[in-house]
Amino acid sequence: MVMTTNTNTAATTGTTTTGTTTTGAVTPAGTGRSAGGRPGRIDFAKAAPKVFRALVGFDAAAREGLDPALVELIQIRASHLNHCAYCLHMHTNDARKAGESEDRLHMVAVWREARHFFTPKEQAALALTEAVTRVADAGVPDDVYAEAAAHFDDAELGHVLALILTINTWNRVALSTAKVAGTDERR
Question: What average pLDDT does the chain have?
Fold first, then answer.
């Protein structure tokens, strides 16, 4: 949900500025509710600002040293699996802005049937993303973990796992606060 690398919190607005984008919810005057969610749902960033900032920091730390294209593929795949239209819209747009091809974006959901669009390293990351996102179904199978470990050193693998954890958390924040796709409030 959040695209960050350097995080500076603006105390007066409750938003977080990152590079050239801003994260955080914009709240309609006097409502206390998210502009991008349904009425009656909280603005998470405003309701729990310390938690929100901690999550932004975790997200930024997770992506450090990872290829930005890989970061977006992981976030897109987890958002597919979690049915998070808000994050899916955000991350496909971010991927396009970063130069990702439409062909690859269309194939992420069916990457196993379109492996030739993705490198073996990307495939390993996508498989790990699926396993961690669906951890309650079957855990993280040893072969999936081993394949990822074969493509990433320990530090990279730690960051990939952290990124998968953060996007799953962002998906749950967006879904539980009823964020609406196309209302990316970072702009």
Answer: 84
Token representation of residue 185: 């409030």
Determine the Cα–Cα distance for residues 118 and 87; give it in Å rounded to an integer. 21
By the 8 A CB rule, do 45 and 24 touch?
A: yes
Neighbouring C-alpha atoms within 13 Å toward the C-beta of 184: 18
Residue-level pLDDT at 162: 98
> In angstroms, rounded to a whole number, what is the distance separating the alpha carbons of residues 123 and 127?
6
β-partners of residue 159 are none
CA distances 42 to 15, 55, 70, 94, 179, Å, are: 15, 17, 31, 25, 10
pLDDT for 101-134, tens place per residue?
999 999 999 999 999 999 999 999 999 999 999 9
DSSP, residue by residue, 115-137: GGGS-HHHHHHHHHHHHHHTHHH
Longest Cα separation, the chain: 52
Distance CA 162, CA 125 (A): 12
pTM given for the model: 0.80
Radius of gyration of the chain, Cα coordinates, nearest whole angstrom? 16
Cα four-point dihedral sign 138, 143, 145, 151: negative
Structure tokens at 27: 């709240």
